[in-house]
Amino acid sequence: MAHLVSSTSCSLKISTTNKAFPQRSGHGPTAFPSSWGLQSSRIPYESLVSRREKHQRNFIVQSTAVPLNQQVPTQAGSSSYQHSNGSTKMQRVMIIGGDGYCGWATALHLSNKGYQVAIVDSLVRRLFDHQLGLDSLTPIASIHNRLRRWKSITGKNIELYIGDICDFEFLAESFNSFEPDAVVHFGEQRSAPYSMIDRSRAVFTQHNNVIGTLNVLFAIKEFREECHLVKLGTMGEYGTPNIDIEEGYITITHNGRTDTLPYPKQASSFYHLSKVHDSHNIAFTCKAWGIRATDLNQGVVYGVRTDETELHEELNNRFDYDGVFGTALNRFCVQAAVGHPLTVYGKGGQTRGYLDIRDTVQCVELAIANPANPGEFRVFNQFTEQFSVNQLAALVTKAGAKLGLDVQTTNVPNPRVEAEEHYYNAKHTKLIDLGLQPHLLSDSLLDSLLNFAIKYEDRIDKKQIMPSISWKKIGVKPKTVVA
Ligand code: NAD
Ligand code: USQ
User: Domain NAD-dependent epimerase/dehydratase spans what residues (predicted)?
Assistant: First the structure.
């Protein structure tokens, strides 16, 4: 198991007493450590995950069969493929990180489309929330209840493998049991602010993400050579160069010679840097071992509902609005709903690619249905529109006014080190060429997001809204949370 955080509150304080993370065991990581070293939590962690003896720590669960009472319409076709012997087989897709924001929506979407789906997840993200005193705006059911509910509504089974992909034994067991045709890898620590809290979280993030991905590459090589890796990268790998951003590669002529090279990477947090390292490892193994891979350089995702999560409250997706895991547009909608000024960091000219969660699931399906060739390292820029932070704030202000909300904006001193006014023009045509039909950010979507935030207003903890993690003040000492 990658090292886990031992803190429980909201405002970050320096602790001089404790190590933030227990050390990894010498025999590979474990899914759930026997002690998380929590300092002051009264949260019943054993109800969150099962605590087992070391040799039993990773376990495999088949979601329980319950009576079918509703069938969601599915579109057949892309979810199956023809074997060389002429028989047709359902594609088997392993979704690593399938309990998270993008992964949960994708698992349901692919299951609904007729793919055989398995979720692999350590549930570490739920643990971060407990340790930092954070919670999703939407109430989210346990993974077991989520899957039971899905089965009861659709009759479709999603297999569940609970464990840490940094534990190769666990991953190997999951691969050999499920035998995936495609692996969609969402299973990383994905918050830039989290990776900038302190040394231990920076190390955790890079260890968890880089070693996890390396293990996935080795598992494919060893057990499922033909398996297509669909890896979630990030647009943030490119940074904000003063030239157009291409999709993965750029053709350069230098001193009279021309070559097509990986597009330069200028990541701006230890999290974003972990993604750069992943991309290099994947590119290398495509070349060296003939692995087929697609790196989806995704922009910032917004929204919460997909066709499948709409079916029942127990299928709710998570919706983060706090200063650690919340992303810009989702945060702004919650802030508007509770009358908190929109937190524009610095000058607000920071421009990024954005996409609706409904397009995330579409893009992943398109990547699976149109796999990379053996040895090919394919890169798609996965976003549909670009906005500056100021533009987002203006859109939310306008949508809020329509609902009678008086939305104000505040320019918070930027806790990050990033360009606040810059050129940004990133290509994003490859997924469109494959058939992506974008859900662009519209007034109606903003209305519905704002209404959603209003619906769950009593769950909002205003103390979690302001950013508390500074890129410049990151230090060696573990920072501890106090309620
Ligand atoms: P999330 O934190 O909601 O979900 C990640 C999931 O992975 C969690 O359920 C977590 O428990 C699991 N996980 C983490 N480390 C693991 C490990 N070692 N073994 C097994 N499971 C592990 O994150 P998300 O927002 O769904 O993001 C998913 C992926 O998409 C990430 O790789 C992220 O970098 C990428 N991405 C996200 C966004 C966004 O706006 N959310 C944008 C671009 C890219
Ligand atoms: N920002 C604000 N105010 C806020 C929150 C953010 O001005 O309240 C600014 C940030 O400074 C940044 C921009 O908005 O310039 C985007 O920040 P974010 O928190 O929405 O997103 P980011 O930290 O970049 O990370 C998110 C996901 C990450 C993913 C990344 C895609 O958490 O997993 O990789 O989006 S990208 O931005 O393209 O790298």
Answer: 93-381
What local confidence, expressed as pLDDT, does residue 25 receive? Answer: 36
For a ligand 1 pocket test, name from 24, 102, 203, 381 the mutation site with the most ligand atoms within 8 angstroms of its C-beta.
102
Beta strand spans in 429-478 (E): none
Q: Ligand 1: does its nearest atom lie under 6 Å from the Cβ of 327?
A: yes
Check if the beta carbon of residue 165 is closer than 8 Å to that of residue 122.
Answer: yes
* Phi/psi of residue 105, nearest 5 degrees: -60, -40
CA triple 319-93-114, angle to 5 deg: 85
418 touches ligand 2 (CB under 6 Å)? yes
In the numeric block, the tokens 């490892």 are attached to: 281
Here the tokens at position 453 are 């935030």
Joined together, the tokens standing for residue 460 give: 């909002």
| pLDDT tens by residue, 367-382 | 999 999 999 999 999 9
Examine the pLDDT at 137 and tell me if it is beyond 60: yes
Q: Measure 353 CA to ligand 2 centroid, in angstroms.
A: 10
Residue 421 · residue 349 · CB < 8 Å: yes
Retrieve residue 225's tokens: 């050579």
| CA separation for the pair 365, 230 (Å, rounded) | 10
Q: Is 399 touching ligand 1 by the criterion CB < 6 Å?
A: no
Q: Report whether 108 contacts 315 (CB < 8 A).
A: yes
Per-residue pLDDT tens digits for 20-65: 333 333 333 333 322 232 222 323 223 333 333 333 344 444 432 2
Q: What torsion do the CA atoms of 380, 383, 384, 386 make, to the nearest 10 degrees?
A: -120
Dihedral over Cα of 352, 356, 357, 360: its sign = negative
Instruction: State the greatest distance between any 2 C-alpha atoms of the chain, in Å, as a whole number.
Output: 69
Question: Are the C-beta atoms of residues 208 and 166 closer than 8 Å to each other?
Answer: yes
CA distance 88 to 205: 40
Contact 404, 337 (CB under 8 A): no
- Cα dihedral 370, 374, 380, 382, rounded to 10, equals 60
Nearest CA to ligand 1 atom 21: 121
445 is written with which tokens? 């979507």
Does 271 qualify as catalytic in the annotation? Answer: yes
Q: Domains of the chain (ranges plus CATH)?
A: 92-464 (3.40.50.720)
Pick the more confident residue, 79 or 191. 191
- Cβ neighbors of 361 (< 8 A, separation 6 or more) are 105, 106, 109, 110, 306
d(CA 271, CA 201): 10
Mean pLDDT calculated for residue range 403-415? 97
Whole-number Å distance between alpha carbons of 163 and 186: 14
d(CA 481, CA 475): 15
